[in-house]
Write a structure and sequence with these properties.
Layout (H helix, E strand, L loop, with lengths): L15 H10 L1 E5 L4 E3 L7 E7 L2 E6 L7 E7 L21 E4 L3 E7 L3 H7 L1 H45 L3 E2 L3 H8 L3 H13 L3 E4 L2 E4 L2
Antiparallel strand pairs: 1-7, 2-6, 3-7, 4-5, 4-6, 8-10, 9-10
Helix pairs in contact: 2-3, 3-5, 4-5
Protein backbone atom coordinates (compact mmCIF):
# COMPACT_ATOMS: atom_id res chain seq x y z
CA UNK A 1 0.00 0.00 0.00
CA UNK A 2 1.35 3.40 -0.96
CA UNK A 3 2.05 5.85 1.87
CA UNK A 4 0.37 8.51 -0.28
CA UNK A 5 -2.93 7.29 1.15
CA UNK A 6 -1.89 9.01 4.39
CA UNK A 7 -1.47 12.43 2.79
CA UNK A 8 -4.86 13.60 4.05
CA UNK A 9 -4.63 16.17 6.87
CA UNK A 10 -6.58 13.83 9.12
CA UNK A 11 -3.45 11.71 9.36
CA UNK A 12 -1.08 14.59 10.17
CA UNK A 13 -0.79 13.56 13.80
CA UNK A 14 0.63 10.16 12.80
CA UNK A 15 4.39 9.82 12.54
CA UNK A 16 6.01 8.44 9.37
CA UNK A 17 6.99 5.35 11.38
CA UNK A 18 3.39 4.68 12.42
CA UNK A 19 2.11 5.25 8.89
CA UNK A 20 4.60 2.69 7.63
CA UNK A 21 3.60 0.29 10.41
CA UNK A 22 -0.09 0.59 9.50
CA UNK A 23 0.84 0.10 5.87
CA UNK A 24 2.52 -3.18 6.68
CA UNK A 25 -0.20 -4.37 9.06
CA UNK A 26 -3.31 -3.42 7.15
CA UNK A 27 -5.17 -4.45 4.07
CA UNK A 28 -6.77 -1.93 1.71
CA UNK A 29 -10.26 -2.96 0.66
CA UNK A 30 -12.18 -1.19 -2.09
CA UNK A 31 -15.93 -0.67 -1.62
CA UNK A 32 -18.63 0.42 -4.02
CA UNK A 33 -21.37 2.79 -2.91
CA UNK A 34 -23.79 0.96 -0.63
CA UNK A 35 -21.41 -1.89 0.21
CA UNK A 36 -21.52 -3.12 3.80
CA UNK A 37 -18.37 -2.43 5.80
CA UNK A 38 -19.50 -3.46 9.30
CA UNK A 39 -22.80 -5.14 10.09
CA UNK A 40 -25.10 -4.52 13.06
CA UNK A 41 -25.17 -7.31 15.63
CA UNK A 42 -22.08 -9.08 14.31
CA UNK A 43 -18.52 -9.23 15.58
CA UNK A 44 -15.89 -7.04 13.92
CA UNK A 45 -12.32 -8.22 13.61
CA UNK A 46 -10.83 -5.05 12.15
CA UNK A 47 -10.73 -1.28 12.67
CA UNK A 48 -11.68 0.56 9.46
CA UNK A 49 -9.62 3.61 8.54
CA UNK A 50 -11.05 5.69 5.70
CA UNK A 51 -8.42 6.43 3.07
CA UNK A 52 -10.59 7.61 0.18
CA UNK A 53 -14.32 8.22 -0.22
CA UNK A 54 -16.76 8.19 2.68
CA UNK A 55 -18.96 5.91 4.76
CA UNK A 56 -22.11 6.40 6.80
CA UNK A 57 -22.71 5.01 10.27
CA UNK A 58 -26.27 4.04 11.17
CA UNK A 59 -28.18 2.72 14.14
CA UNK A 60 -30.65 -0.06 13.33
CA UNK A 61 -33.87 -0.45 15.35
CA UNK A 62 -33.88 -3.67 17.38
CA UNK A 63 -37.55 -4.33 16.67
CA UNK A 64 -37.51 -3.38 12.98
CA UNK A 65 -34.34 -3.77 10.87
CA UNK A 66 -35.90 -1.58 8.17
CA UNK A 67 -35.71 1.45 10.48
CA UNK A 68 -32.37 3.24 10.31
CA UNK A 69 -31.04 6.36 12.01
CA UNK A 70 -28.05 8.11 10.48
CA UNK A 71 -25.53 8.88 13.24
CA UNK A 72 -22.62 10.41 11.34
CA UNK A 73 -20.36 10.16 8.30
CA UNK A 74 -16.75 8.97 8.12
CA UNK A 75 -14.35 10.75 5.76
CA UNK A 76 -10.65 10.30 4.86
CA UNK A 77 -8.40 10.36 7.91
CA UNK A 78 -11.07 8.97 10.24
CA UNK A 79 -11.70 5.63 11.94
CA UNK A 80 -14.92 4.03 13.17
CA UNK A 81 -14.47 3.93 16.97
CA UNK A 82 -17.42 1.57 17.47
CA UNK A 83 -15.42 -1.23 15.86
CA UNK A 84 -13.36 -1.36 19.07
CA UNK A 85 -16.47 -2.59 20.92
CA UNK A 86 -15.75 -6.02 19.50
CA UNK A 87 -12.74 -6.23 21.79
CA UNK A 88 -15.15 -6.40 24.75
CA UNK A 89 -16.98 -9.52 25.98
CA UNK A 90 -20.11 -10.02 23.84
CA UNK A 91 -18.96 -6.98 21.90
CA UNK A 92 -21.12 -7.22 18.82
CA UNK A 93 -21.49 -4.17 16.61
CA UNK A 94 -24.15 -1.69 17.86
CA UNK A 95 -24.15 0.04 14.46
CA UNK A 96 -23.97 -0.60 10.72
CA UNK A 97 -21.36 1.00 8.47
CA UNK A 98 -21.93 1.33 4.71
CA UNK A 99 -19.92 2.98 1.98
CA UNK A 100 -21.53 6.32 1.15
CA UNK A 101 -19.45 6.56 -2.02
CA UNK A 102 -16.82 4.41 -3.70
CA UNK A 103 -14.22 4.10 -0.97
CA UNK A 104 -10.85 2.66 -0.06
CA UNK A 105 -10.72 1.55 3.56
CA UNK A 106 -7.73 0.23 5.46
CA UNK A 107 -8.53 -2.78 7.65
CA UNK A 108 -6.37 -2.94 10.78
CA UNK A 109 -6.81 -6.18 12.81
CA UNK A 110 -8.31 -5.39 16.21
CA UNK A 111 -5.77 -7.65 17.90
CA UNK A 112 -3.08 -5.21 16.75
CA UNK A 113 -4.59 -2.12 18.40
CA UNK A 114 -3.09 -2.69 21.83
CA UNK A 115 0.45 -3.28 20.46
CA UNK A 116 0.06 -0.18 18.26
CA UNK A 117 -0.96 1.91 21.28
CA UNK A 118 1.99 0.64 23.29
CA UNK A 119 4.50 1.29 20.52
CA UNK A 120 3.18 4.61 19.17
CA UNK A 121 1.88 7.18 21.67
CA UNK A 122 0.33 9.33 18.94
CA UNK A 123 -2.08 6.53 18.03
CA UNK A 124 -3.89 7.01 21.34
CA UNK A 125 -4.24 10.74 20.68
CA UNK A 126 -5.46 10.04 17.15
CA UNK A 127 -7.94 7.46 18.42
CA UNK A 128 -9.27 9.71 21.20
CA UNK A 129 -9.62 12.59 18.74
CA UNK A 130 -11.85 10.41 16.61
CA UNK A 131 -13.88 9.34 19.63
CA UNK A 132 -14.34 12.99 20.62
CA UNK A 133 -15.57 14.04 17.16
CA UNK A 134 -18.04 11.17 17.07
CA UNK A 135 -19.28 11.96 20.59
CA UNK A 136 -19.78 15.62 19.69
CA UNK A 137 -21.76 14.61 16.60
CA UNK A 138 -23.96 12.35 18.71
CA UNK A 139 -24.55 15.20 21.17
CA UNK A 140 -25.59 17.37 18.23
CA UNK A 141 -27.96 14.62 17.13
CA UNK A 142 -29.50 14.53 20.61
CA UNK A 143 -29.85 18.31 20.56
CA UNK A 144 -31.67 18.20 17.24
CA UNK A 145 -33.86 15.25 18.16
CA UNK A 146 -34.78 16.31 21.69
CA UNK A 147 -33.92 19.90 22.58
CA UNK A 148 -35.11 21.47 19.33
CA UNK A 149 -38.37 19.55 19.60
CA UNK A 150 -38.69 20.56 23.24
CA UNK A 151 -37.94 24.16 22.32
CA UNK A 152 -40.97 24.15 20.02
CA UNK A 153 -43.08 22.64 22.82
CA UNK A 154 -41.86 25.26 25.29
CA UNK A 155 -42.67 28.12 22.94
CA UNK A 156 -46.12 26.68 22.22
CA UNK A 157 -46.64 26.30 25.98
CA UNK A 158 -45.73 29.95 26.62
CA UNK A 159 -47.91 31.16 23.76
CA UNK A 160 -50.85 29.12 25.08
CA UNK A 161 -50.38 30.52 28.59
CA UNK A 162 -50.26 34.04 27.20
CA UNK A 163 -53.40 33.45 25.17
CA UNK A 164 -55.27 32.03 28.15
CA UNK A 165 -54.30 35.02 30.30
CA UNK A 166 -54.65 37.57 27.50
CA UNK A 167 -51.12 38.75 28.17
CA UNK A 168 -47.77 38.78 26.39
CA UNK A 169 -45.97 37.31 29.37
CA UNK A 170 -45.87 34.29 31.66
CA UNK A 171 -45.12 34.69 35.36
CA UNK A 172 -44.64 30.99 36.08
CA UNK A 173 -41.29 29.88 37.50
CA UNK A 174 -38.89 27.80 35.46
CA UNK A 175 -39.40 24.98 37.94
CA UNK A 176 -43.15 25.05 37.27
CA UNK A 177 -42.69 25.19 33.51
CA UNK A 178 -40.22 22.30 33.66
CA UNK A 179 -42.62 20.24 35.73
CA UNK A 180 -45.51 20.77 33.34
CA UNK A 181 -43.33 19.98 30.32
CA UNK A 182 -41.83 16.88 31.90
CA UNK A 183 -38.23 18.10 31.86
CA UNK A 184 -35.72 19.80 34.18
CA UNK A 185 -35.28 23.41 35.25
CA UNK A 186 -31.81 23.42 33.68
CA UNK A 187 -33.19 22.39 30.30
CA UNK A 188 -35.92 25.04 30.45
CA UNK A 189 -33.32 27.68 31.35
CA UNK A 190 -31.17 26.67 28.40
CA UNK A 191 -34.10 26.73 25.99
CA UNK A 192 -35.33 30.10 27.23
CA UNK A 193 -31.84 31.54 26.69
CA UNK A 194 -31.86 30.16 23.15
CA UNK A 195 -35.24 31.72 22.44
CA UNK A 196 -34.09 35.01 23.96
CA UNK A 197 -30.99 34.96 21.78
CA UNK A 198 -33.22 34.43 18.73
CA UNK A 199 -35.24 37.51 19.66
CA UNK A 200 -38.42 35.54 20.34
CA UNK A 201 -38.81 36.58 23.97
CA UNK A 202 -37.22 38.39 26.89
CA UNK A 203 -36.79 37.42 30.55
CA UNK A 204 -36.86 39.44 33.75
CA UNK A 205 -37.76 38.96 37.42
CA UNK A 206 -41.45 38.98 36.59
CA UNK A 207 -41.23 36.14 34.09
CA UNK A 208 -41.04 35.55 30.35
CA UNK A 209 -42.38 38.01 27.77
CA UNK A 210 -43.04 37.31 24.11
CA UNK A 211 -41.80 39.80 21.52
CA UNK A 212 -43.46 40.76 18.27
Amino acid sequence: MALSYFDHEGFNILSPALKEHLTNLGKVVEYDKGDLVLDYGLHADFMPIILEGSARVMRIADDDPSKELLLYFLTPGEICPCAAFSQLPNGNMPITVEAESPAKILHIPLVELTPITEAFSEWRIYELGNFRRRFEELLSLVDNAIFNQLEARLLAYIEKRCLLNNRRGVSLSKVKMASELGTSREVVSRLLKNLEHKGVLTQDKEGVHLLG
